[in-house]
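Researcher: I'd like a candidate sequence for this fold, 592 residues long. If you have to choose between options at a position, lean toward the conservative one.
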């Protein structure tokens, strides 16, 4: 469980207009300016002993926000664990989750590589997890599914194929509402096939297929087509190539069978994305000629056009990180070679027309920021959402997330249109306390949680009271309204107080497993969800005990303190309902 995050670091960068061109490219001079960073977050890992963290993939969500997935260090495992972070369009962290795979006395090492928002609004995360069972592959793919509000619906480790190591590096939703995933593979066999697994919305395997193309094949790209087929791309090896890897592209039909394969292609495939006209755009690189180009290909594998990017050879760059379709052309993100550039930025954003001719260049990012190709996503306003790993002066590598606007004009601040309670009515028992949520809705459709910034008042404090943070308490039976005021706007919530105790429902803690070091403390929060769906915090009404006080102790309000290394269990009791969670205590990190 992630217990602490850095607070948002909001950066407003003034637009500096420079004029420069790439010599010898035959094009008009290209406008260059510093990118506008609307907001930025620095986020450290949750484990004090292994604080390193990184982001491997990001995606848009239909509510105007974004989800990022990556990995962070863990002192409980020989490696790390997957971290999933949801942020709003305005940069607020909405929720953050850690994915763990407990196995006996350790957590299995795992890391998230890909993330996808499904058509129903749920979030799918894929990656790899170490298999500690003897005789099984060293790493298996896993997929986890979250609801839009961050509830873990399921997580599954796939032991379906006898491949020494394979990972879920890319997930696509198929036209029938199911999902396919594929990724890198290694094995001890002389011949290692590429793979693709199809699952349904509950994570159940519908089909697990392997594709023996040459002596080894691995797919890093997958695009699902409207007819249910999937185009995959990656690398292959064969006996004829003497160990040199070449590109491979293949089409797989809805039954999992190969339709066609393009083998031993010399030019690398750096990315594959859908085009506006229903075809595919492949970013290709010829290593021998140091030449990039964008190739349009249809679903039959026929090359329709090649857009040469010869001018990239004159850009002081290390590599092309990202390609996306943008307005009437393309958007490229390249990592600069800071040893030969005069500006202090690590990255360039280059906007081109449909012929690949550059028209605008933006500069952003610290030279120590590392962004992988899936760590960039188109923003809802045609800007960019970017997440990567940033080296720090103190040593640990931390996550940086940022939203970039692609305009020479600072975007106008959206106006507040209304505030609202979510939900707008509440039913409480006498003596019961429940938190409220107040959202500010702006003219650009963004929503910000202003619960802690609003001012509250109860129309009848004898029936229900409200504190400074919007927590509402039932005092005596009756009905009343609680009002919230924020920046001159007002909203209210209807509150009904009954004399009855909470009825049937679900009692639970904020985690199934807690970890801390000797002498450290962390707090436990208890919740009760009624059948109606109303969730209340009931920590103060809960009785906590711990199985082994020699390992950890807990006080009357749920604060756990580590005593000695080991594992024990905490038990919480509320109105006759019981919930247990594991407590791991480790030795604090000591420098030599």
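Model: Candidate sequence:
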């Amino acid at each position: 469980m992630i217990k602490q995050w850095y607070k948002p670091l909001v950066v407003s960068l003034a637009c500096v207009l420079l004029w420069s061109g790439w010599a010898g490219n035959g094009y008009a001079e290209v406008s260059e300016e510093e990118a506008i960073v609307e907001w930025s977050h620095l986020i450290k890992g949750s484990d004090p002993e292994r604080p390193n963290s990184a982001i491997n993939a990001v995606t848009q969500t239909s509510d105007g926000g974004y989800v990022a997935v990556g990995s962070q260090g863990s002192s409980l495992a020989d490696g790390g664990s997957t971290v999933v972070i949801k942020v709003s369009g305005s940069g607020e962290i909405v929720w953050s989750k850690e994915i763990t795979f407990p196995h006996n006395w350790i957590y299995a090492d795992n890391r998230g590589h890909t993330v996808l928002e499904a058509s129903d609004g749920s979030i799918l995360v894929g990656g790899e997890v170490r298999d500690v069972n003897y005789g099984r592959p060293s790493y298996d793919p896993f997929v986890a599914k979250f609801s839009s509000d961050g509830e873990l619906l399921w997580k599954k480790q796939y032991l379906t194929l006898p491949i020494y190591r394979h990972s879920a590096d890319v997930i696509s939703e198929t036209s029938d509402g199911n999902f396919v995933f594929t990724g890198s593979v290694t094995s001890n066999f002389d011949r290692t096939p590429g793979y693709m697994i199809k699952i349904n919305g509950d994570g159940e395997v519908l089909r697990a297929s392997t594709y023996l193309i040459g002596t080894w094949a691995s797919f890093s790209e997958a695009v699902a087509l409207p007819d249910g087929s999937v185009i995959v791309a990656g690398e292959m090896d064969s006996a004829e190539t003497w160990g040199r890897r070449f590109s491979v592209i293949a089409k797989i039909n809805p039954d999992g069978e190969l339709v066609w394969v393009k083998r031993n292609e010399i030019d690398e495939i750096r990315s594959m994305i859908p085009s506006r006209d229903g075809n595919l755009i492949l970013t290709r690189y010829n290593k021998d000629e140091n030449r990039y180009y964008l190739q349009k290909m249809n679903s039959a594998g026929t090359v329709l056009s090649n857009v040469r990017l010869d001018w990239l050879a004159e850009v002081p760059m290390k590599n092309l990180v990202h390609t996306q379709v943008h307005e009437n052309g393309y958007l490229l993100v390249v990592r600069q070679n800071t040893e030969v550039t005069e500006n202090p930025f690590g990255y360039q954003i280059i906007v081109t027309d449909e012929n690949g001719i550059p028209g605008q260049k933006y500069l952003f990012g610290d030279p120590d920021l590392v962004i992988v190709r899936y760590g960039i996503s188109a923003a809802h306003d045609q800007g960019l959402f970017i997440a990567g790993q940033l080296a720090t002066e103190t040593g640990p590598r931390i996550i940086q997330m940022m939203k970039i606007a692609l305009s020479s004009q600072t975007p106008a601040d959206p106006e507040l249109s209304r505030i609202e309670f979510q939900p707008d009515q509440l039913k409480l028992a006498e003596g019961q306390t429940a938190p409220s949520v107040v959202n500010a809705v702006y003219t650009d459709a963004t929503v910000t949680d202003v619960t802690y910034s609003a001012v509250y008042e109860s129309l009848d404090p004898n029936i229900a009271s409200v504190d400074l943070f919007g927590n509402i308490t039932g005092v005596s039976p009756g009905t009343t309204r609680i009002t919230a005021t924020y920046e001159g706007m007002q909203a209210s919530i209807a509150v009904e107080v009954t004399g009855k105790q909470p009825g049937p429902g679900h009692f639970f803690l904020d985690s199934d497993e807690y970890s801390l070091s000797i002498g450290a403390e962390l707090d436990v929060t208890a919740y009760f969800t009624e059948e109606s769906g109303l969730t209340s915090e009931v920590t103060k009404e809960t009785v906590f005990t711990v199985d082994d006080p020699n390992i950890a102790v807990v006080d009357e309000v749920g604060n756990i303190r580590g005593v000695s290394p080991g594992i024990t269990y905490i038990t919480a009791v509320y109105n006759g309902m019981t919930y247990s969670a594991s407590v791991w205590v480790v030795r604090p990190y000591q420098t030599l």
